[in-house]
Design goal:
alpha+beta, Alpha-Beta Plaits, 3-stranded antiparallel beta sheet, 4 helices, 3 strands
């Protein structure tokens, strides 16, 4: 009986540790992330996506660092989610309809976007 209980305990321990995969951390170039509004918009939206544990947007470097669980999502899904809210992500461009809905400060600089200009 002791051996059976020991075997069951070891089997259970191996099963539970095998289920916990290490989170994956990736950095995605988000060239439009240039103001606090962009940062807030990206972080709040991505945190609601399944499998994403942490999102940090660096507006100075224009990089979004995402920590996610690889068994629930992948980097392509994350880039698509960014595109679906109107932001470019690495080599993928934003959805045109969602891009139009962004505030001016969150748009590409060639479209007149960017952070507000300081007055002299």
């Amino acid at each position: 009986m002791k051996y059976l209980l020991s075997f069951c305990w070891i089997f259970w321990a191996l099963q539970t540790t095998a289920q916990f995969k290490k989170p994956v951390v990736v950095q995605i170039q988000t060239p439009q992330a240039q103001c606090i509004e962009c940062k807030t918009r990206i972080e709040q939206f991505l945190k609601t996506e399944e499998g994403i544990a942490k999102v940090v947007v660096d507006i100075k470097k224009k990089i979004t660092t995402v920590t996610f669980l690889s068994d629930r999502t992948n980097i392509e899904n994350i880039k698509t989610a960014l595109n679906n809210i109107g932001f470019d992500a690495d080599n993928l461009t934003a959805e045109p309809e969602q891009y139009k809905r962004l505030p001016l400060c969150c748009k590409r600089t060639e479209d007149g976007g960017g952070p507000p200009k300081k007055k002299p």
